[in-house]
Amino acid sequence: MASPRPTSRILSRGDTVGFLFFVVLGVGLAVWAVVHSAIRIVEALPNRDVRVTVPFLDTIAQAPLGPSAAPVPIELGTGVIVAPELPIASLWALLIAEVLLAAVVVTVVVLLLLLTADILRGRIFSRRNTALVSVAGTVTLVGLAGVPFFQNMVANGALARMSDYTFDRGAVQIVDLPVLFGTAFVAALAGTVFTVGDRLQRDMDGLV
What we know:
Radius of gyration: 23 Å
């Protein structure tokens, strides 16, 4: 195996500072995800007065936006409701969504920090780094699809319990498809770039 090239030949001082900032930002993001999910779980576990974000479709409500705060019809897109309690299945869905969110964020951050550490050591393209990029992209896609899925189960359960199973909000798109497809494209492109880069690096090392 070829030894890594000195970092000074690859990265400038500005590049190194940028990567170190990325490390700090990644650690902060991972800590935020864990703390956010932990607080959300602790708040929800008593299963009383649970705040739930709910996407609506073709739902009209009244808001005090007219003269002298007269009610005006508005079409809801997203709202926060306070459910007295959640069905057990929805409560479990909430717990799974929060654990999955934290796990995905922490996993992606750790993978990208391992990649950053390799780059700071002067090793950019390698099979290990290609695997790190590919797995990070896959985990991100799982999070983008899985977290909204379970959050939608929570919203459905909260609305059903509050309305005594009489409210029908219609079919709501639970996954942001443009974001999902865009992320899939970027992940596939990054994996391809690192695969090609690794192949070229090994070819060049063979010529040295």
